[in-house]
Amino acid sequence: MVEEESAYVIRPPRVEDVDALGALHCQVWREAYVGLMDDDAFAALTPQRFASGWARRMEQMGPDGHHPNGEHVAVAEHADQLVGFISVGPAREQEDAPTDTQLWAINVVSDHLGTGVAQELMVQVLGERSAYLWVAEGNDRAIRFYERNNFRLDGARATDREDGLVELRMVRH
């Protein structure tokens, strides 16, 4: 575990980060969702799949980490390695969104959990704004992190048709 919170650089992603973001995103999902999603979908997680998604997003993203769709992305770097990212944007639900802002994702590799880097990402990109998010049922560590940031489960739940992941909605007003 990394001890020095000050050793992190929070910055916008760059085009040259695409492969590292793909590897990071895949690693985090493999660490966090083992046993929580459909076995076939879990087996299909590859760094290349995630990198291709990041490449599409980066095509339109500005150098400040803002995308025309309203998404704002930042990455956390430690010792020249990406160790986490956050993505915040407008509510994805067309109806029934509890707030206008959604925390689309915050992901940190397990070696850097508990260092404060996720909190720093949250503070720098989302701040204290009202927002909501979807968290995997069974991802208790993430739920506790969100609760410390004043998010509360609101009773909404959904099952992803593609990967079988059951998600719970959390809201902060």
UniProtKB/TrEMBL annotation:
Organism placement in taxonomy = Bacteria, Bacillati, Actinomycetota, Actinomycetes, Micrococcales
**Taxonomic source organism:** Ornithinimicrobium cryptoxanthini
> Which stretches make up the N-acetyltransferase domain?
8-173
**Which Pfam families does the record cross-reference, listed alphabetically?**
Acetyltransf_1
**This chain belongs to which protein, by name?**
GNAT family N-acetyltransferase
Superkingdom in the source lineage: Bacteria
